[in-house]
Amino acid sequence: MIFGECWWIFISKIRRGKMPWDEIIGQKYAKKILKNSLKSNYLYHAYLFYGPSGCGKALTAKVYAQALNCQELEGDGCGRCFSCRLIEDGTHPDVIWLLPLKEEFSIKQVREIKRELSYKPIMGRRKVCVLLGVERLTREAANALLISLEEPPPEVTFIMSTTSPYRLLPTLLSRCQPIRFGSLPKEEIEEALLSWGAAEDVIPLVTTLCEGSLGRAKEYIDNEILKRKDVITAWLKNIEEGDLRSIFEITEVVSKGRVLEDLILILSILRRSSEPRALLPIMEGIVEIEKGVRFHTNTQLALEVLFLEYQRIIGQKSPSH
Fold first, then answer.
1. Rounded to whole angstroms, how far apart are CA atoms 74 and 67?
2. What is the pTM of this model?
């Protein structure tokens, strides 16, 4: 059951045949705490999952909800029973997902949830209320939620997630069991991308761009980053062939767009060129430009100079020279 703007909240590349806990990449610390709570039946009434975006907080909330309400296993989720499948689909009547409407949670949303949680579970052992992005609670909504956390309804577990715990009310923080989620190592992201069938030639690029976020890696695989790589590759080929116009096109687009992402893209393409040693000065120049972006230097001018040098180096390597 989902309250709020309905966007898909899981990394839905589930490895079929695996137990739900195995869906979670990395996060050994978080899994250990949650599994121990199930094993000992010592359940907190509210958890706060905090860490960078795309590291598995929503997925872990789903898996924990399955473990709390599985019809086949006690203290774990099988992923196959009717209850686990409903939770997987976001349609279980006792597992409620609260997402921000537009930019923030409203007091109306919190009141609707409080009313829903006042009823007994319909088919599960516990009601689970998952709030994603609680740093976007308005003060009014946060105070309304605080009342529920101070006097939690029986048979209810709250799971809240945030990337910015410092933005929450101290009184709200004090009512939750905090569980930290960390950025994922490149090796774990590469393994996940391979298991999803991502092309091997783009995996190093994506793992660099995603900065430890599996969710962001999936977005890059699914959307425009690969198309952008093809466009930049075509520009570089034109520059190699002596087209000055492409120099001004690429530098204008890069300097006015996602500068850091595009610089990493260019760097990745050059590293895989047939003459990486010859292009070392260009790659070093890109690294220097990347540093300069933070100090608001003239990125477009710096790139124009660099690509003119790139064109000169490639020209020297050409068989015609």
1. 8
2. 0.68
Tell me how far apart the alpha carbons of residues 296 and 263 are, in angstroms, rounded to a whole number.
Answer: 15
What tens digit of pLDDT does each residue of 206-242 get? 777 777 888 778 777 766 566 677 777 788 888 888 8
Q: Which of 122, 69, 87, 112 lies closest to 1 in space, CA to CA?
A: 87
DSSP 136: G
Q: How far is CA 256 from CA 80, 235, 247, 253, 300, in A?
A: 49, 16, 14, 5, 8
- Measure the CA–CA gap between 67 and 38, rounded to whole angstroms: 8
Label residue 148 exposed, middle or buried (CB < 10 Å: 0-12, 13-18, 19+): buried
The pLDDT of residue 9 is above 50: no
Average pLDDT taken over every residue of the chain: 80
- Residue with the larger pLDDT of the pair 319 and 213: 213
Tally the C-alpha atoms within 13 A of residue 117's C-alpha that lie toward its C-beta: 29
CATH topology of domain 2-182: Rossmann fold (3.40.50)
Cα gap 26→307, rounded to integer Å: 40
Domain boundaries, the chain: 2-182, 187-222, 224-317
CA distance 101 to 116: 18
Give residue 64's pLDDT.
94
Site of tokens 């969710």: 215
d(CA 41, CA 68): 10
Nearest to 148 by CA among 103, 192, 126, 116: 116
- Tell me: pLDDT of 156 over 90: yes
